[in-house]
Design goal:
The protein is an alpha+beta fold. The chain has helices at residues 10-21, 43-48, 67-77, 88-104, 111-117, 121-143, 155-169, 178-187, 191-195, and strands at 2-5, 27-30, 56-59, 62-65. The protein has a 4-stranded mixed β-sheet with strand order 2-1-3-4, covered by helices on one side. Pathway: Amino-acid degradation; L-phenylalanine degradation; acetoacetate and fumarate from L-phenylalanine: step 5/6.
Length: 210
């Protein structure tokens, strides 16, 4: 497998965690979203992913984009350890939380949106994340065990940790979100989350390395 990734991309980090958890080794091709006006806009990368976004994963003779589509494929082809619970209700809760982050928070504070916000970009990102986290905190109070849904790491957790990293980068006050903070702390202690972390990627700038 070949993963096209950017160290700081939360969508890429989700996939790196899944690959790490499932023990799938891969080659990494960095795509710098800032340099050269954004390497994702090159003709070469557009041919790979017409949406001009990371991540993209070449695997088993196909190229997949969109982090949850990639994670679902990995789940179906490498079922252990599972990232979707067997219980239909818990599975639905995992998907709900993942969608909440992937559709309801992250795109609103994504690089392409922030570029259009000009000087207000930090304030905009903080507001988008805070309103999403208010809802998420409430949801997690009903679903969480050690992690987002019960005591097993799931697809929801793969979305949570990268989104908290975004929140910290934009200096969002995490005080009102004790459940999110507690789960994130537990996740960052896991090896798969450590090795896939933005501070430990081949394309991480020296000053941001762990």
């Amino acid at each position: 497998p070949v993963l096209y990734s950017y160290f700081r991309s939360s969508c890429s980090w989700r996939v790196r965690i899944a690959l790490a958890l499932k023990g799938i080794s891969y080659d990494l091709v960095p795509v710098n979203l800032i340099k050269d006006g954004g390497q994702q806009f090159s003709a070469e990368f557009k041919a790979l992913n017409p949406m001009q976004q990371v991540p993209a994963l070449k695997i088993d003779g196909i190229t997949l984009s969109q982090s949850l589509a990639i994670i679902n494929y990995l789940e179906e082809t490498h079922p252990n350890p599972r990232l979707l619970p067997q219980d239909p209700k818990k599975r639905a809760q995992v998907r709900m939380i993942a969608d909440h982050i992937v559709s309801g928070i992250q795109p609103l504070q994504n690089l392409s949106v922030l570029k259009q916000m000009g000087e207000k970009k930090t304030e905009w990102a903080q507001n988008c994340i805070a309103s999403g986290f208010q809802a998420l905190e409430q949801i997690l109070q009903h679903t969480a065990g050690r992690y987002c849904v019960g005591d097993e790491v799931s697809m929801a957790d793969l979305c949570l940790a990268p989104q908290v990293a975004n929140a910290e980068r934009f200096k969002v006050d995490m005080g009102p979100y004790p459940t999110i903070t507690r789960i994130n702390k537990a996740l960052l202690e896991l090896e798969a989350f450590k090795i896939s972390h933005p501070s430990r990627q081949p394309d991480t700038p020296a000053e941001l390395r762990a």
